[in-house]
Automatic annotation (TrEMBL):
<dbReference type="InterPro" id="IPR001279">
    <property type="entry name" value="Metallo-B-lactamas"/>
</dbReference>
<comment type="similarity">
    <text>Belongs to the metallo-beta-lactamase superfamily.</text>
</comment>
<keyword id="KW-0378">Hydrolase</keyword>
<dbReference type="GO" id="GO:0046872">
    <property type="term" value="F:metal ion binding"/>
</dbReference>
<dbReference type="Pfam" id="PF00753">
    <property type="entry name" value="Lactamase_B"/>
</dbReference>
<feature type="domain" description="Metallo-beta-lactamase">
    <location>
        <begin position="64"/>
        <end position="262"/>
    </location>
</feature>
<dbReference type="InterPro" id="IPR036866">
    <property type="entry name" value="RibonucZ/Hydroxyglut_hydro"/>
</dbReference>
<keyword id="KW-0862">Zinc</keyword>
<dbReference type="InterPro" id="IPR051013">
    <property type="entry name" value="MBL_superfamily_lactonases"/>
</dbReference>
<dbReference type="GO" id="GO:0016787">
    <property type="term" value="F:hydrolase activity"/>
</dbReference>
<keyword id="KW-0479">Metal-binding</keyword>
<protein>
    <submittedName>
        <fullName>Metallo-beta-lactamase superfamily protein</fullName>
    </submittedName>
</protein>
Amino acid sequence: MHDLSPKSIAGVDVIPLCDAVGPMGESLRKPLDETFPGASPTVWEHLCAHAPEAYGLQGEWVLHFHCFLLRIPSGPTVLVDTGLGGTDSPASSWAPVPGGLGDVLASAGVAATDVDVVVLTHLHSDHASGAVQEGMPAFPNARYVVQRRELDWLRGKVHDPVNERIVRPLREAGSLDAAEGRKTLADHVELVPTPGHTPGHQSVVVDDHRLVVSGDVVLHPVHLADEMATYVYDENPGAAAITRAELLRRIRERDGLLAAPHLPSPFVRP
């Protein structure tokens, strides 16, 4: 059983919110050695024995879809990523929808109107689809923070439904903030660009890497065993591997925690 209890770092409470658990749909699913090329057979053998919760009955990758809530003393209530959304969301073509983010937020005593800032680590559908409900911002009092580089990249993907169904409603509602690189959210809480998986990917750093909500910098336990193993759906696999190695190095130097959305446990010490 994984520890789902909050972590407190420099007075900031970080609460994991499990939105869903399940494999990718058949349209995107590949054998794991093709999904994460470069890792040795020895690494895969080790993971099968020591991380069985990441595998389904047929050996497929079972993803956990975690979002994270940050409660900051005398600061904003911050939600990092918004999960899968409903059965009609952009994620519904490949992910185990509907997500249960609203229910787990309510269990944590947080209403949608209580959220002050929504950080979207990147604009893939499993991280952004819960940002909008029925064409309106799902968190009506929040500013939605995305890197400008991410918005510019997605604008070029004209057929991506996240553009039309997530970004456009947020922009029209006046809720979207385009960040330019590093950005301080509160004392001890900072947004840091972590590009590679997507061009404008960002992570949330608490107390100088004592805890990092990493988005998709780390996707699978294989990235902890071999941080240079690439991922078939990275926009720039080489840059993603360099970013991952540097981020994990800094977390280890601080004896910190990694909060990675798709790992079986929401918090790990890399």
